[in-house]
């Protein structure tokens, strides 16, 4: 958790500043939406090392649409995928752009994110055990 402490704190500060601006302007805020936004910002900072930008946040709006559609999807996998194909394509494109951007932009204000970190030995694909039989990324 210490690795993410600064990222979580910065996301919380960003949220608090946004809420202070709402209060100054007399705006009403949706607590559920604000908590979703805080969680996304925290996760994004952990993955990329950078704060969540408004464009990425808009693109990530496709995720709830896919999740909401899951219970009503046909049992047939091909038909189910077709029902949410556009949203899945948006999520896939966003993921690809995020990974590429994180790797070219380098470390964020609190160091590299999970997408920018190198496995052990600085070479792609090399990992060491985590003591429980699974892989572990080097620090």
Quick overview of this protein structure:
The protein is mainly α and 139 residues long. Helices cover 60% and strands 3% of the residues. The longest helix is centred in the first third of the chain and has 24 residues, at 2-25.
List the helices and strands and how they pair.
Elements: H1 2-25, H2 31-48, H3 54-59, H4 62-69, H5 77-83, H6 85-105, E1 128-129, E2 135-136
Antiparallel strand pairs: 1-2
Helix pairs in contact: 1-2, 4-6
Helix and strand content put the structural class at mainly alpha
Cα Rg: 18 Å
Strand order of the largest sheet: 1-2
Distance between the termini: 13 Å
* Low-confidence regions: 118-130, 134-139
Helical element count?
Answer: 6
Strand content: under 5%
Give the H and E element order.
HHHHHHEE
Shape estimate:
globular
Descriptive overview:
There is one protein chain. The chain is mainly alpha-helical. The chain is 60% helix and 3% strand. It has helices spanning 2-25, 31-48, 54-59, 62-69, 77-83, 85-105, and strands at residues 128-129, 135-136. Strands 1-2 form a two-stranded antiparallel sheet. A hairpin with a 5-residue loop joins strand 1 (128-129) and strand 2. Helix 1 runs antiparallel to helix 2. The longest helix is centred in the N-terminal third of the chain and has 24 residues, at 2-25. It is globular. The protein starts with a helix and ends with a strand. Residues 118-130 and 134-139 have low confidence and may be disordered.
């Amino acid at each position: 958790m210490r690795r993410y402490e600064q990222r979580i704190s910065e996301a919380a500060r960003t949220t608090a500043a946004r809420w202070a601006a709402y209060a100054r302007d007399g705006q009403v805020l949706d607590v559920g939406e604000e908590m979703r936004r805080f969680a996304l910002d925290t996760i994004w900072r952990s993955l990329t090392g950078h704060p969540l930008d408004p464009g990425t946040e808009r693109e990530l709006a496709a995720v709830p649409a896919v999740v909401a559609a899951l219970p009503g999807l046909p049992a047939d996998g091909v038909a189910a995928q077709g029902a949410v194909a556009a949203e899945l394509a948006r999520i896939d494109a966003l993921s690809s752009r995020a990974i590429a951007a994180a790797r070219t932009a380098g470390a964020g204000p609190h160091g590299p994110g999970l997408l920018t970190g190198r496995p052990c030995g600085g070479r792609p694909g090399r990992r060491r055990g985590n003591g429980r039989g699974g892989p572990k990324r080097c620090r």
